[in-house]
């Protein structure tokens, strides 16, 4: 039986925002009698806010915090711990001070289960500033550069670009690809950040490297996901 894996931000919902209500109805129906897995960098509360308790409880498994916390039908079944090394925190604080993006809004480090989320602009920014930073970062590749530098300096740490304004930092191997340890083939994976440095990349990369039976659906937005699902 096919196993369907979905990223959430940018794939099922606009980044950090709730799912389109019409797509919600469609998706609720579509997942019936299918193996469906959600894989996101966000925590459970944020995900439920975005896709609703109904869908969250109905899927086969919900992998929160890039798979560092696993829920099955509302029940917690696994959790990993991660604490950021002091030297890395210092390194990122310097990045924060020296960034060419000057507007800072606070809440730059957020401890999550199994990972630390880091944002130059800060998670307290408005939606409008979030979009501005996102566009700026697309041109300037600040987040990709930060991720690459972290991995050069700290060989046991991994970092990836996620959402619009932040990066996820975790123990090597603590990325989204860990979900493939307990999901079998064949796999269909839907994600919006499959390019190198993106937080869906580790899944795509591992599926290809291990020659797993899979199909990748690299989407630009939730509407594209919706259109694709109508054909499945
Ligand atoms: Mg995404």
How is this structure best described in words?
The chain is of the alpha/beta class. It folds into two domains: 3-79 and 175-230, Rossmann fold (3-Layer(aba) Sandwich), CATH 3.40.50; 86-171, Eukaryotic phosphomannomutase, cap domain (Hypothetical Protein, Haloacid Dehalogenase-like Hydrolase, Chain: A, domain 2), CATH 3.30.1240. The protein is 35% helix and 23% strand. The strands form two sheets. A seven-stranded mixed β-sheet has the order 5-4-3-2-1-10-11. The radius of gyration is 17 Å and the shape is globular. The mean pLDDT is 95. Residues 7, 9-11, 192-193 line the site of magnesium ion. Magnesium ion (MG) binds next to loops.
Descriptive terms for the model:
232 residues, alpha/beta, Rossmann fold, Hypothetical Protein, Haloacid Dehalogenase-like Hydrolase, Chain: A, domain 2, 2 domains, seven-stranded mixed sheet, four-stranded antiparallel sheet, globular, binds magnesium ion
